Amino acid sequence: KENVRAAPAQILARPAPSASPSHCVREVERMRLRREAMREAVEEQRRSRADDDGTAEFQQMIAEYRQNLAAGARAPGDMHGGRATPPAAANAQRIRVVVRKRPLLAHERSNADYDTVTCAPGGRRIVVHEPKTRVDLQKAMESHAFDVDDVFSEEASTQELYERTVGALVAAMFDGCSATCFTYGQTGSGKTYTMLGKGAAGAVADAIAPSRALDGPDDAGLYHLAVRDCFEQLELLRREGVALFLAVSFFEVYCGGVHDLLRNRSTCRVLEDAQGEVQVRDLAEVVPDSLTHLLELTSAANAIRCVGTTSANEHSSRSHAVLQLTLRLAESGDSYGRFSLVDLAGSERAADCADAKRTTRNEGAEINKSLLCLKECIRALGAGQAYTPFRGSKLTQVLRDAFTGESARSVMIANVSPGSSSVEHTLNTLRYAMRLSAHSAADGGAS
Ligand code: ADP
Ligand code: MG
C-alpha cells in the first residue's frame, strides 16, 4: 500500500516541462501515469477494505449456497423467515404476496457491494443472506428463507410480473370488483420502476419530456400494462354493445393530507358520508382518450412529485402515490369497478419517527402509522373479517374499498434491493410481507 501511495508524489516531483512538442508528449504520458497510479491506489484501498469486512469470504459462502441449491441439496443453515400463503385457505385468492428483486446497479457493484438475495428454484422462495461477524471475528452467514405466492428475480420483466399477478386484478375490475396493487419496500428498491417503467422511475428529467420514455415493451411499467389491457377490454365490450368508460385520478397521500397530482398537488378533502362511503372531494378525474394520453398524464404527474426537491427520491420516498382507474357505466356515470395502483412511501422512512428534525419526525410517524394500519387492513381482508380498521390512517381511509366487501382483491409486491448494504431493510420488507397473511399469527419466528 505504501508503494502505491508514494507513486503519485514521485511523479509529481519531476521537473516542469517546457512547451516543445516532445515535452507535450511527455506531459501527456506523465498525466496518464499519474491517473493510473491514483486508480491503482483507490483499487488497493477498496480491496483492503473488502478484505477487512470479509466481502470476499461472504461472496464465497453465498456462491456455495447457490451451488448447493442448484444441486438440489438441502441448503445448510436455512432459517425460515415465514410463509405468506395460508395453507388451502378459502381467502387465499383475495390477497397475493409476491416479491420482486431488482438487479444490483452498476454504481453499487463499483462500490464493492454484492448480491445477497437468492431466488430459489420453483419460483416461490426467496432467501436473504445476512453476513455476520462473530465476537471472535469469525465470519458467518445466516440465510433467511421466505415463502411467498410468487418470486420475480432480477431477470424477470414487469411484463412477466403483470401476466402472472397483476393482470388478474384488471380482470377482477371488469367483473365489478375493487382491486388494489401495492409496491412496498425501501427507497431505491424499484417500486416506482415497477409502476412507471424504465426511464420514468423518479427521473426528474421526465418533467421536461413526459412522453419520451415508455414506448418499447421493456420500458413498460404496471400503469402502462394495466391501462393497455383496460383499453383492449373496453374495445371488446364496446363491440358487444356494453358501454363502459375508464376514468383516471392520480393523487398522493403525504403527512395525512391528500394532494391531487393531476392538479399540481392541490389539496383535497376526504369525507365519509352517512353510508360510510369515503369520498375524496375536489379530486380531478380525467377520461383518457388513448394509452399515450394516460402515460403523458402519469409521467407528468410523477414529475410533479419530484419538483422542488434536490433528489428524485427525496419527496417521493415520503409520500404514497395512488393511481386510481375507475370503470364507469356510460349511461349513469356510476362506478362499476375500480383498480388502485399504490406506490407506497419508502418503508425505511417509518423509522424516521425518532429523527431529530421535527418535519422528518412527523413524516416518519405518519408513514409508520399508515404502513402499520395497511397491514392490519389487509390482514382483516384476508381473514374475511367484517370489521376493518381503515380509519386508522388517511391512506387506508381513502382506499377503504380495497379492504371491505366480498369482492376486494389485493396484490402486494414487496420490492427488494439485493445489495449487502440493504440486508437489514430487505429482511424488514419481507417480514412485513409475511405478516400480511392473516394466518401468519406466529410470524414464522424469523430471527
Ligand atoms: P423506489 O421507487 O423504490 O425508491 P426506483 O423505482 O426509483 O426505487 O428504483 C431505484 C433505481 O433502481 C432506479 O434507478 C431504477 O431504474 C432501478 N431499478 C429498479 N428496479 C429495476 C429493475 N427491475 N431493473 C432494472 N433497474 C431497476
Ligand atoms: Mg419511488
UniProtKB/TrEMBL annotation:
Gene Ontology terms, MF aspect: ATP binding; microtubule binding; microtubule motor activity
Keywords from the named record: ATP-binding, Microtubule, Motor protein, Nucleotide-binding
Gene Ontology cellular component list: microtubule
Kinesin motor domain location: 94-439
Binding-site list for ATP: 185-192
GO biological process terms on file: microtubule depolymerization; microtubule-based movement
Keyword field contains ATP-binding: yes
Entry's family note: Belongs to the TRAFAC class myosin-kinesin ATPase superfamily. Kinesin family. KIN-13 subfamily.
Name of the featured protein: Kinesin-like protein
Organism whose genome encodes this protein: Diacronema lutheri (Unicellular marine alga)
Organism taxonomic ancestry: Eukaryota, Haptista, Haptophyta, Pavlovophyceae, Pavlovales
Interval of the full protein contained in this chain: 44 to 490 of 818
